[in-house]
Amino acid sequence: MTWSTFAQSHLIESLGWTLAYSVWQLALISVFLLIALRCTVRSSPNIRYVISVAALVLSVIVPLVTFLQIASRSGARVPDRAAYSVEQIDDREINERKMSGSATEVQHAAPDENGPSDQFISLFVTRGFIERNIPALFPFAVLAWLFGVALFSLRLVGGVVQLHKYKTIGIDAADDEWHRRFAGLCKLLRVDHNVRLLRSTFIKTPIAVGLIKPLIIMPASVFLQMDPRQLECIIAHELVHIRRYDCLINILQSVVEIAFFYHPAVWWISATVRREREFAADAAVMQASVDGVTYATALANLEEIRHPTKINAASIAIAANGGNLMQRIQRILNKKTETPHANSVLSTALAVAFISALLVTLFSFSPKPVVNGQKRDNNGRQLAIGFVGIPPLDRSENPPKDSYATAQLLMDVLKSHHIPAMGFVTGSSISDGDKIFPVRAEIVKMWRDQGFEVGIGGFRHLSFYDTPYDEYVANIEKNEAVTKKVLGNETSLRYFSYPYLNTGRSTADRDRFESWLAGQGLSSVKYTVDNQEWMYSYAYDMARNDNDINTMKEIKASFLDYMSKMIDHFENYSRDMFGRDIPQTMVLTTSRLVADTGNDLFGMLEKRGYKFVSINQAQSDPAYQTPEEFMGKAGISWFERWQMKQGKPLLDEPNPDPSVVKTWDTRKPVKSK
């Protein structure tokens, strides 16, 4: 096709006139929308959303009708008067046009007698000039429009590709407990669609995707990082989007933005639709009897989690953090203040102040926390952490080259999160029984000098089940002597951690040993949150040794997801057994993995409402006096011991990542606890 053929094409002319007319048509629609929104300020968010969507639909229909009308014309391509020139306008025609005009037009003309004729000629000539010359620009305008459509279409294709990644990379099903919660939310919100809830280690923001087979995909980290009640609010918000077919509207928006990329009014209308959609979804969640303060706090915490990543979901997906976050939170809390009770108003006002301060802090600066302070206690949850053992060693028999750096990194993270952790010394890592290894011993001293408590395990990491009683006690005595030699005899040791969490072959041996511990001024630690972090840490150490950055990233993401599931798992034990969240005790190793993921791991626990306490404070809870009689080769959590004593079946425990298990089984490392 030659340029001449292209330029003279009836289709190009029709498109050109449509683009020209759309400039004022779309602007007029946006003005009407603005007026409508101003008139419905006090109306429900759903009405305002419907009005906004209607404006978006009109933005498609009006230019389409215009194009069809222009394309269907027969005869001349432009209005007849476009062919007129000044020479063709004779006095007779001018007089006829004067006479056809109203008296009002004549009265409004200029006072001199030639004024009306001059103005009319000027207007008519200008119109003729435009209608003769503007079409000459249409081929260039249409080419520019086609280029823009192609460019923005590529953007949409990129969004579709990204959406496919969201649905396929790092995906697994939520655990049974969250499936139960999810089913309850679907019933509460009357969602009839066959919706699935998935976890993802790839995305950073909860999203709802799909029309025929809708999915709600949640970042794996938020299951650990947020309180379950807050997370239910976020999931409910996504369910509302699916119930209202907002995904379909979002696709329409994407198409409209492509077709009218050149018009600011369309972008404003589309942004208004997205804003009002979030308000409407929030209102629907609130109508389901969700507590406003909990919901607002959930949104603020979600943004705090997402913000450091600076990653947004593809625009084709419905993301939980859409719209103006502060406006959404204010609307939710203002809804809460409609109650007449003064206490509710006061609590909501405080919530507004707190959440506002959180967001201002989030988007302006990140101040360093006070070392001796404590994080806020959202719901009374407490957690104590014991590290087995110090100094840091990797999962092989050789100490890491940078064990000192690992220890310092770990202690810095613990201090930044105000964690009064306890480290348990394994004597053979700092001494051969006679000679002290100075560098490793210095790490143990540094642990104490940084304000963390020191406890002891065995000199060697021996299982009580496989070791005769006297030999086992001698191993502990030797470890106590080495530890006091390094730290000084005046050092007070209060706690002992069973290697492998194994408490012996018989209750008689265990009770005898517990009596011996008491005579030494020691108490044993009863870990409620057991886990296989040591397995992940070994795989991570191997990847570090190989300088395999990608594998290290994968292991960190998988580890955080695994710990999320484990926390859910043991919280279920706590609620089922005691009807409340008892103070928990969690065992970890002083590994490089824990040091490198510490901010994420401990930050997640904080977001779930945990306050970090000492082991002494946690175990002062009456729950730790619950009887148990487990005697076996395995080392298991005290929750599992208590459950078995009560004759109840154990809950299914989340499994570690298969690739991590394979690495562990292949290398056959020395066990860590």
- Ranges where pLDDT stays below 50 over 5 or more residues in a row are 74-117, 336-378, 395-400, 669-673
Summarize the main sheet: 5 strands, mixed
- When the domains are counted, the total is 2
Number of strands: 12
| Helical proportion, percent range | 55-70%
Global structural class: alpha/beta
Strand arrangement, major sheet: 1-2-4-3-5
Any idea of the CATH topology of the largest domain?
Answer: TIM Barrel
Regarding CATH, which class of the largest domain? Alpha Beta
Percentage of residues in DSSP E strands: 5-15%
Radius of gyration, taken over Cα atoms and rounded to an integer in Å: 35 Å
Gap between N and C termini? 77 Å
Give the rounded overall mean pLDDT.
Answer: 79
Discrete helix count: 25
CATH architecture of the largest domain: Alpha-Beta Barrel
Shape: elongated
Name the CATH superfamily assignment of the largest domain. Answer: Glycoside hydrolase/deacetylase
What is the subunit arrangement here?
Answer: single chain
Task: Tell me what you see in this structure.
The chain has 673 residues and is of the alpha/beta class. The chain folds into 2 domains: 3-67 and 141-345, no CATH class; 381-667, Glycoside hydrolase/deacetylase (TIM Barrel). Helices cover 58% and strands 7% of the residues. The chain contains 25 helices and 12 strands. The strands form 3 sheets. The protein has a 5-stranded mixed sheet. Strand 3 (207-209) and strand 4 form a beta hairpin. Helix 8 (176-188) crosses helix 10 (228-243) and helix 13 packs antiparallel against helix 14. The longest helix has 31 residues, at 138-168. It starts with a helix and ends in a 6-residue tail after the last helix.
